[in-house]
Amino acid sequence: MKTVFVLLLTLVSATHVLSQGTVNFANSQSTRITNCVTGAPVSTSTDGIRAALYYAPDGVIDEAAFALGGPSVAVISGVFNGGPRTIPTPVPGGWIMIQIRAFEATYGSTYEEAWAAPLQNGRFALTGKSVIVRVDTGNPASTPPDPATSLVNSGLRGFCVASKPLPFPQITISDALVFEGDGGTTNAIFEVTLIGGSNEVVSVNYSTADNSATAGSDYTSASGTVVFNAGESNKTIVVTVSGDTEPENDEVLLVNLSNPVNGVLLRAQAAGTIYNDDCRTDVQLAFYPGVTINGCAGKPYRIEVAFEANPNQWSTVTNFVVPTSPYLWFDTISPISGQRFYRTVLLPP
């Protein structure tokens, strides 16, 4: 009995090994994975996209019946190369159905996990599937099996990845830039946009927060609710900025969106830059045709000139970044003329 048992075990094991086939899990430039929106090839390093091999018995086209055929692999410029894969087949080297599935790995470790993952940064995972191809897996005779049947020669075509549609319209907010001013107050305007439109009322809360700017001295804190009625898509949030004459670095305040209703947050935070403009106008005549500029080092200016014949008619000489302050600048651009007058205008970054 013991001898018979060993023989039977050997036969069963041999049958299991033979009921396999091999597939070369790789594609080529002609079958690349791309981004459905941009058309650009995707990569694991830049887009987080990985590719996985799925298989099903011959003739099956129900995608729910496909099983994962090993770990996912990295994608480089739309191309993957996982090498030979051993796949179970009804008979040794039989026909099977193959599909490639790609997914954004930051949402999950498999295609299924990524597809079912919740929103991150206002969107779902990038996912995509290839066409289903029928593959003759050959008859593996060695371990690892070699050679493997090539997917590229089996009708595989390129495909793209995209996010599944959002259930609600998206809410986003843009950054703002405001010149500080020498006194009083100035308004920093933040644009809030509803993308996709809605037949329902959409709302989102907002509140300011300190970054390098401080509420109470640099700006006045604000909070409230932005409401989009049906058909509306653009709203604004106004934050009051306090002016002064103290030379200082640019400062930043934040506006945070939260608790959206009938919408999802595509961008939940915006930065408001309070642009220091307390050294923008001091231009001193040094010697003809040079002037000394006392400005904000590292900031862009527009240098303008007026001539004696038309002292109120200003024209642009050049746009110029002051490297240090004070800085002696020579006008080698304007035409030779009589007396000249200069002024500077501080520009946005």
Describe what this molecule looks like in 3D:
This protein is mainly beta and 349 residues long. It folds into 3 domains: 145 residues, Immunoglobulin-like (Sandwich), CATH 2.60.40; 106 residues, Sandwich (Immunoglobulin-like); 65 residues. 8% of the residues lie in helices and 47% in strands. The strands form 5 sheets. Strands 1, 2, 3, 4, 5, 6, 7, 8, 9, 10 and 11 form an 11-stranded mixed beta sheet that branches. Strands 13-20-18-15-16 form a 5-stranded mixed beta sheet, with no helix packed on it. It has a 4-stranded mixed beta sheet with strand order 17-14-12-19, with no helix packed on it. A hairpin with a 2-residue loop joins β5 and β6. The N terminus is likely disordered.
